[in-house]
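Practice problem: very-long-chain enoyl-CoA reductase
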Amino acid sequence: MVNVTISAAGHVPLARGLPITATFDEDATVADVKSYVTAKFPQFYAARQKLSLKGDRKALADNSTLKEAGIEDGGELSVKDLGPQISWRTVFIIEYIGPLLIHPLFYHFPKVFYGGPVQHSTMQKYTYAFVMLHFLKRVLETVFVHRFSHSTMPFFNVFRNSAHYWLLSGIALAYAVYRPAYSATSPYILGTIHNNPNFLFACGALWLFAELSNMHTHLTLRSLRPAGTTKRAIPYGYGFSFVSCPNYYFEVLSWVALAVMTGSYTAWVFVIRNLGLGSVRVTLFDWYPRGGRGSSNRWPV
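Answer key — structure tokens:
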């Protein structure tokens, strides 16, 4: 048996009774300690807790035993309140639902945003279909495909994470591509490559290839992690032999197809942001053999 003192790291309003001392079996895990804290302070649920060794900021893994963590009889742990939490799955759905709500508004109600009707060009129709299908696919993958290493994240981060999708690929992109300047009667469209069926078909084919390839890599990653675990493994096969993160690569490629098709500066800004910022970090030019510099461990959570 191991006696452990659990003290507060900083301000922990939901556990004002800390510090407390508890007795655990030697094979008890960090998750067991969190459950004990929750039993004492019901509002301080496990996802809000960060347990560390006294004087150390590094979080202890939930599946680590007290012995593995270096806790001996009379040892002390510090618990930090991470604040309100929200599930990663819910965060993803909130992010992707934004464009699914925003694009139909700009497309179907142009009088509200542009002051008059818009006779949509074929290019605009393609763009609308591509955007809606892309984010519908992302929602379905979030619900039925993705498995997450961490169950939750701080609630207030959802606003920062969602801004990328709601503002840039939502409002900014929708306003730019459905405006009269891209309509069927616009000089930008009439007699140009943006009204050429072969060009639009080629862009559509590239987009479809990228979307299906992206889905394939997500299914490959899912197969590496049994349900209910945080197991990690090295993926092989389609895409993974050429780039470190083919799921991100194909994601960006699909947006490149849309940006080329529309010629919209806003679409290109979204591509560039996907390359270097936000939740999508792609290693687009990382063409090294597996085991070399390109074989990173940057897989999605």
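Discussion: DSSP finds eight helices and six strands in the chain. Students who identified this feature from the tokens alone can consider the problem solved.
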